[in-house]
Write a structure and sequence with these properties.
This protein is of the alpha+beta class. Helices cover 49% and strands 17% of the residues. It has one domain. 38% of the residues are buried. This is DUF1877 family protein. It comes from Streptomyces argenteolus.
């Protein structure tokens, strides 16, 4: 499980990949979280917000890796266009329902993500996605 999870906006994959070693915090708009598996989470969020099957999305290569270093464990991956669009159009009620679903799914796996915290994470991420899309940017995740 990742210790540091930062979602951030970047103009393209190349710009996002350049942040692999340093992380995005000082370079661009970002959100910092911790102690959940972000690769698994973005697939779960896509299932909850846009529909789909977890295994099919994972087999299709979601989330798409942009840069990675096996020796130091840092990764940068992109949120799918489908997930970004779902975040951008989501109403607060949609985000609350997705947060409840995510919290329940994690509890079944033995992970505790409180519903209120899940709501904050999804709400903040929806705001970041909306801001990024207005600028023509994508949203990425850096983990360390």
């Amino acid at each position: 499980m990742s210790i540091i999870v930062e979602f951030f906006a970047a103009p393209d994959d190349a710009a996002a990949a350049r942040l692999l070693r340093t992380g995005p915090r000082r370079a661009c708009e970002s959100l910092s979280f911790g102690n959940f598996d972000p690769e698994e989470a973005v697939i779960e969020w896509e299932c909850l917000l846009a529909g789909g099957d977890f295994d099919e999305l994972a087999e299709a290569g979601e989330p798409r890796l942009v840069a990675g270093q096996e020796e130091d464990g840092c990764l940068v991956f992109a949120l799918s266009n489908r997930l970004s669009a779902a975040f951008a159009r989501a109403e607060q009620s949609d985000l609350r329902a997705a947060a409840a679903g995510w919290s329940s799914r994690r509890a079944k796996e033995g992970d505790v993500i409180e519903r209120e915290i899940a709501s904050v994470i999804l709400g903040d991420l929806a705001a970041l996605v909306s801001s990024a899309r207005r600028q023509g940017h994508g949203v990425y995740c850096w983990t360390a």
